[in-house]
Write a structure and sequence with these properties.
single chain, alpha+beta, Serine Threonine Protein Phosphatase 5, Tetratricopeptide repeat, Nuclear Transport Factor 2, Chain: A, 2 domains, 6-stranded mixed β-sheet, 6 strands
C-alpha cells in the first residue's frame, strides 16, 4: 500500500498556503464574501462537523440570498429518511438554475440518496468528475473508505486535506497503511489535520486513537478540547464521560464496592434513608433472592417491613467489578457470609451465598438496578418467612 513519503514536505507546503483562500468548489454563483463562508461550511461538513457546517451555510445565505449552494450544504447535513428527514424538503427549495456544474452534480447525488439509488449516485458523480476533474468537492466525495485515495487526495488538494489526514490517521492507527499500528504516524497525520482546520472532529479522533493505544489521559484531554467547541447538547460529551471514568476506573470500582456494602447494610438494618441513596426513583431494583424463587421488584416497603428474624452478621467479600465498554454500567460479583436467628429461637443459622449486582451510571450517581443471589454448595440462603 502506498504511504506518505513526503509528509514533512507536505506540512511545510500547507503552512505556506493561504488557507483562508482554500476552495472546495471552483465555480459558484455565490458572491465573494458568501463564497468564502460557503467554503468554510463545506470544510466543516467534510470534517463531520455538521452543526457548524449548517451555521456557516446559513451565514453564507444571509450574506447572499442567491447563494443556493448554501442550501445545498444544509440539505447534505439533513437526514434523508422519508419518514423524518428534511433533506427532500431542503432540496426542493433550491433554485437549481442558480447552481454551477459542480453544485448541480452534488445536487443530483443528494437526490439519489433520497431513494438509496447508489447506481445513480455513482454515475452522477462520475459524470461530474469528467466535467470537473479538478473539483476538490467532487474528488472528496469519490474517495470514501479507501486509504490510498485519501492519501492521493491529500497530495492533490493539500489545502483541503484536513478530513483526509484525519482518515489517514486511522489508517496508521489500525495498521491498514503500514501493516501494523503506527501511532507516531497517526498522531502526525492528526496534527496535519489540525494545522489545516481548527475544529472538534480531529480532536475527537485524536482521543479515539489515544484510546486504541490505551492512553485514556491523552484521550480525555483532547476530548475536552473537542467538547469545548459545543458544550451544549454536545456530540462530544458522551466520550468525555467515558474517558474520565476510564482515567478514574480504579477509584470508581472501589467506590462501587463500598456502595454495594452500604446498600446491603441498609437493607439488613432497615435503613431506608441510606438505601435510597443507591437506588433510582425512575428504575426499579429487580432482585432474585437466595431462596431461588421468582424475580421481583425490591421496594421501599421491603426495606422497612418487620421481619421475624435478626441478622447477627452479614459480610461481603471477594468483590470484583466489571465495566461495560462505555463505562456506563458495572457488574459486581461477590460472596456473602453471615448468620441470622429467628426471633423465637436463639439458634444461629449460617448464611452463605454468591451474588452479582448491576449498577448503572445516572445523572444522580451510580444506582443499583439488579441483584441475584444463590446459595453456595451446602450453603443456606435468606430465611423464608
Amino acid at each position: 500500500m502506498k504511504t506518505i513519503k513526503t509528509i514533512t514536505n507536505i506540512l511545510i507546503l500547507i503552512v505556506s498556503l493561504n488557507l483562508s483562500s482554500q476552495k472546495w468548489i471552483n465555480e459558484t454563483n455565490c458572491d465573494t464574501q458568501s463564497s468564502e463562508i460557503l467554503n468554510e461550511a463545506i470544510q466543516h461538513f467534510s470534517n463531520l462537523e455538521h452543526l457548524m457546517a449548517i451555521g456557516m451555510a446559513k451565514a453564507a445565505y444571509m450574506s447572499d440570498s442567491g447563494c443556493e449552494c448554501a442550501k445545498l450544504v444544509m440539505a447534505a447535513a439533513a437526514g434523508s429518511d422519508a419518514n423524518w428527514g428534511s433533506r427532500k424538503a431542503k432540496l426542493d427549495d433550491i433554485n437549481t438554475q442558480l447552481l454551477s456544474d459542480e453544485e448541480t452534480t452534488w445536487y443530483g447525488m443528494l437526490v439519489a440518496t433520497l431513494t438509496g439509488d447508489s447506481e445513480t449516485y455513482q454515475s452522477t458523480l462520475g459524470s461530474g468528475l469528467e466535467q470537473n476533474p479538478d473539483s476538490p468537492l467532487l474528488n472528496w466525495l469519490s474517495v470514501q473508505g479507501d486509504y490510498n485515495k485519501f492519501i492521493e487526495f491529500a497530495e492533490k488538494f493539500p489545502a483541503n486535506a484536513a478530513a483526509a489526514y484525519n482518515m489517514i490517521a486511522y489508517g496508521y492507527a489500525y495498521g491498514d497503511i503500514s501493516g501494523e499500528p503506527d501511532f507516531d504516524k497517526a498522531y502526525e497525520a492528526i496534527e496535519m489535520s489540525l494545522t489545516l482546520h481548527k475544529g472538534p472532529n480531529a480532536l475527537d479522533s485524536k482521543g479515539e486513537i489515544a484510546v486504541m493505544k490505551g492512553d485514556y489521559q491523552t484521550a480525555l484531554e483532547n476530548q475536552l478540547k473537542a467538547y469545548d467547541y459545543a458544550p451544549f447538547a454536545s456530540p462530544y460529551q458522551p466520550k468525555v464521560v467515558t474517558y474520565y471514568r476510564n482515567v478514574n476506573k480504579e477509584t470508581i470500582a472501589n467506590n462501587l464496592k463500598e456502595a454495594q456494602k452500604d446498600l446491603q447494610d441498609a437493607i439488613t438494618n432497615s435503613d431506608l434513608e441510606t438505601y435510597k441513596k443507591y437506588v433510582s426513583d425512575d428504575i426499579d431494583l429487580v432482585t432474585g433472592d437466595s431462596n431461588l424463587g421468582e424475580f421481583y421488584v425490591y421496594s421501599d416497603d421491603d426495606v422497612t417491613r418487620k421481619r421475624n428474624f435478626t441478622w447477627n452478621s452479614f459480610d461481603l467479600n471477594n468483590m470484583d467489578v466489571h465495566f461495560s465498554p462505555d463505562m456506563s454500567m458495572a457488574i459486581l460479583t461477590f460472596y456473602a457470609k453471615g448468620s441470622y436467628s429467628f426471633d423465637d429461637s436463639d439458634e444461629n443459622i449460617d448464611y452463605s451465598t454468591r451474588a452479582s449486582s448491576v449498577w448503572i451510571a445516572t445523572d444522580d450517581g451510580w444506582k443499583s438496578v439488579h441483584s441475584n443471589w444463590a446459595p453456595m454448595k451446602d450453603g443456606v440462603g435468606i430465611p423464608e418467612e
